[in-house]
Amino acid sequence: MRRLTSDKIIGNVANTLIKASVSFRTDQIKRYEAALEAETNMQAKWVLTNILENAKVGDEQKLPLCDDTGIPHVFLEIGDGVSLPAGFLKAVDQGIAQGLQKLPGRPMAVRGNDVERLTQEAGLYSDPEKLIPAPIQVRRLPGEKVKLTVLMLGGGPEIRGKTMRVFHKHSLEVISNEMISWAKEGATLLGCQPCVLAFGIGRTNVEAASLALEAMKDGDLLEQSNLEQYLTDEVNKSNVGPLGVGGSTTALGTFIKVGPQRASGVRVVSLRVGCCFDPRKATYQWSAQDFDQ
Amino acid sequence: MKKVYCPIKGELSLELYEEIEIYGKIFTGRDAVLPKIATLYQEGRLSEFGIDLAGSVIFHTAVSDAGIGPTSSNKFDIESTIPILSKAGVKLHLGKGALKKDTIDALKENQSYFAITPPTSALFSSKILSQRVVAFSDEGIEALHELEVAGIPAIIAAANGKTVFGYL
């Protein structure tokens, strides 16, 4: 029997955080290579080449892809047939802390009480592991497995994202035009293009933002729906290009997650204008046997 | 590809879109420390802190064990110091993002340049030879650092009154 100990969980989570932070996935590499091939702007090619070289060095030397190592966001998908051991979430938190320590994450947790954290007057912690993760997202899965995905969300995209209602007039065109308008504005100002757009569309602001994170968790740059490809193509007409130097690669791809909707003339859309390393994510999967008591 | 050795002796002559590699000792600073450095210059007190900006390069980045990488140079605390620091002798400001026309004009007046680089921290980490805090150590990762680097890649984004961000 393979009983999963807290130490094992902590190690698995820490390694997943590090993997998300230092390496590109195959879909990212292939998408970048295709963009480099298609790009005719020489400066844009230079930027894309540097980003690919960075991913190679990051993977080989286990160095963070970006010095803004991001805020950890954990996504847990729990099989209906699995019984989690006591202290599981505590071990996940400890795994995140250990991952930040080993990476190392940028020490950017803000000290102090509510007001001090807002004004930053009490300064920062020098320890990377003080950066506590965002509240964990949980979903159900059929069967007997547990999937953990760690996403590392950098700060630049947080300046360019937003969550807001759209009066949809019962038309996909109205909604998609609004999404394109937001995406173009954000992509122009981002700084670290090419961007990866993540949209969640839900009934409430919280649900929409959570769906945008889910879209990032599930998204694959090589598997794009018609709507996703359409949004990417529209944003690429802007000619902003990688790092803003011009060219046809302003957006690498788009991830959209449409949730349940409310009987209403309103849809709540959440957008994250991800940067050139987004989504920084990695997944680890346990099976039921791992958790046997 | 032009190699730029720092500190820079004499005047730089660079073209918009030109690719460069930066070698030698450069400064780093961002939101927290650059306004302080600008104030020190205006008060004539840079030498008290052992800072010589003549022919220098400032990379808009924090410095931590996670590495370095450009922050947005158009944040108020950073962009507002570019004209002052150019006057103080900074020849090359390295960061990312579009700058205002006034800033680009101020760069030209002082024969200074703005270069951009992607946030390729793993690549940068492999090119840092040494690092030390120069001033304002209480700012932690945002303190004024001096790095010795071997070939930081960049592209000229504002030169001679012109910018690559013409679409804005």
Describe the fold and architecture:
The complex is a heterodimer of chains A (about 290) and B (about 170). Chain A is built from 9 helices and 8 strands. Chain A has about 290 residues and is α/β, with parallel strands linked by helices. Chain A has 2 domains: about 130 residues, Dihydrodipicolinate Reductase, domain 2 (2-Layer Sandwich); about 120 residues, no CATH class. The termini of chain A are close together. The relative contact order of chain A is 0.20. Chain A is about 40% helix and about 20% strand. Chain B has about 170 residues and is an alpha/beta fold. The model of chain B has no long low-confidence stretch (mean pLDDT about 95). In chain B, strand 4, helix 4 and strand 5 form a beta-alpha-beta unit. Chain B has one domain: Fe-S hydro-lyase, tartrate dehydratase beta-type, catalytic domain (fumarase), CATH 3.20.130.10. A 5-stranded mixed barrel of chain B has the order 2-3-4-5-7. Chain B contains 5 helices and 8 strands, in the order E-E-H-E-H-H-E-H-E-H-E-E-E. At the A-B interface, helix 3 of A face helix 5 and strand 7 of B.
What's the gist of this structure?
With 293 residues, chain A is an alpha/beta fold.
What is the makeup of the main sheet of chain A?
4 strands, mixed
Q: What is the C-alpha radius of gyration of chain A, as a whole number of Å?
A: 20 Å
- Measured by DSSP, the beta-strand proportion of chain B falls in 25-35%
Run of helices and strands of chain A: HHHEHHEEHEHEHHEEE
Please give the oligomerization state of what you see: heterodimer
Q: What does the radius of gyration of chain B come to?
A: 14 Å
The computed structural class of chain A is alpha/beta
Level of helix content of chain A? 40-55%
Helix-strand topology string of chain B: EEHEHHEHEHEEE
C-alpha termini separation of chain B: 27 Å
Q: Largest sheet of chain B, if any?
A: 5 strands, mixed, barrel
Measured as a percent range, the helix fraction of chain B is 10-25%
Low-confidence stretches of chain B: none
Mean pLDDT across every amino acid position of chain A = 95
